[in-house]
Amino acid sequence: MFEHINQKKQLLDANRPLPKYTVKSLHEKLLLEWTYNTNAIEGNSLTINETKVVLEGITVGGKTLREHLEVINHRDAIHFVEEIVQKDEPLSEWQIKNIHRLVLKGIDDAYAGVYRDQQVFIAGAKHIPPAPFLIKEEIEHLMAWYEQAETQKLHPIARGAMLHAIFVGIHPFIDGNGRTSRLLLNLELMIYGFPPIVIKVENRLAYYEALDKAHTKREYDDFIKLVADEVDDSLNLYLSAINSNA
Q: According to UniProt, where does the site described as Important for autoinhibition of adenylyltransferase activity lie (predicted)?
């Protein structure tokens, strides 16, 4: 599954560093599309152009404060993830809580970075997240899985996809689990030199179905394949920039 992706990444790596303004424009494009799509998946009604305006510091009439905060918060969370990558810090529970704290800042401060104390259910999913008293233990199991040697031998795409799926299955927070899980997925990819990916809102149904299959049957192949396709898209975008500059 990963052979052609590895070849594309090797080609990208061979052409690094890319020109400064090319990198800047690619970063801005992906930050916008990542922020728009991740929020749209969760029901935010801002269009991609409205999201761009909010990122520029302008208020959009007729939209809620929450919808504006979801954009600003996600941008800040991306910057935090980029800092983790730049500092080469290992993934930790503390970082997960801090990412979530940024996602929910000003939206629900009482639960920002705090594990839920109530049972929740995922609309449209067969999977039921664990009871609140099990969350701490489940997160510890997730971190132990992540750190074990066998997991570290997995391809970064498979490891990132499984990290996302297991985390969102635990659903440790009252709100913001989807956004946080997609940030964790991209954190894992970026640590290993892949460009961030965008789970597109038009693929939402396939995304949810693949996640539910992972949660109920412990079968991750469909979800890994979905993530791999998005990695392929992002690599193609970067490679097109190389060809344009050639």
A: 42
The CATH number assigned to the domain holding 111 equals 1.10.3290.10
25 is in an annotated binding site: no
Q: How many domains does the chain have?
A: 1
Residue 28 CB coordination number (10 Å): 12
73 pLDDT more than 90: yes
146 is in an annotated binding site: no
- Known catalytic residues? 171
Look at residue 246 and tell me whether its pLDDT is greater than 60: no
In Å, the largest CA–CA distance within the chain is 56
Q: Does the structure show a pLDDT above 90 at 78?
A: yes
Quote the pTM value: 0.97
10 in any annotated domain: no
Residue 66 in contact with residue 107, Cβ under 8 Å? yes
Cα–Cα distance between 52 and 30 in angstroms, integer? 11
Record the tokens describing residue 86, joined without a space. Answer: 């730049």
